[in-house]
Input
Amino acid sequence: MTRIILSTGNVMLGGPSIIRKPGTYRSNLEFTNSLRANFSAAQQDYAAALPNGNGNHSHTQHNSRPATEVWTERDGSTLYVPRIDWGLAGLQEDRAQYEITVKLFFLPTAPPEKRADYIQEALRLVMRELGVNDIDLLIVSFPGISFEGDCEWEADRKNATMGNDEEEVATWGLLERLYEQGLIGRLGVAEFGSEKLRRLVDKVKVRPAVDQINIKNCCNVPPPLTKLAKEKGIELFTHHDSTDILPSGTLRELLGQGPQGAGVLADEGSNASGLKGEIIPEWVVKYTAFVKDRGVIENKGYFASAETVDEA
Output
């Protein structure tokens, strides 16, 4: 078993071509395009540092891609793709100048009982990348929940039956501990309609401060949700994030041997080089460091985790 940690670096430094393509509205494209760009940049940078400037025979694969060990880094059973230069981490100004928002996506392929580990690892990576010890707002996105329908009423009605209340409340308890420790200033949820939000509020100690919903596929915020949020003092935000931000097929394409792949995974059923076995996406975390007095985003990026499982 190998755990793979993927990272985009700061997408604000990469130029608009990897941040947003015209006509797109969901962040899975921003995420996947930024990963590809970071993989390519790392391959070029680390290969250029080899003795002959573009990789020698022992560090080059048959397709001219530098060998995985050149531009990735293994730490025990964890493989960082690409390797991360933590010496470049940190923000430019004092911590007090920033509003730091983190959104953690639990993916449908990952077991809920491992979410405590996922939360710890995701926040560890973000805090190390930004050089901070706390987060202002953490929004959690649970699998199997969306906000879609022909109108806001239908979207709210369908949303009430989605997800798994028991698992969501148990996970929320893990986040409450971090809130009580002062590591997180506010907690939020994504895609919770009026009924799901009411049920959550009734069962938890620390109620959400934010509910982030995507109304792209309906019309407006449902009136029952607006009323409940006002009663409970919950802010309603809109967003354009994909609810399934990293499907297994997309991850295998990103890391595989194809023309747009990074060459980290071996093709299924082949004896080629690369990690073998099934690849299971676990979580994605999106982070944003907003400079309050200047009104600009200084640092924005993603980390993701996946696990390889040996084929039986």
Summary: Residues 16-25, 54-58 have pLDDT under 50 and may be disordered. The longest helix spans residues 27-48. The CA atoms of residues 209 and 234 lie 5 Å apart.
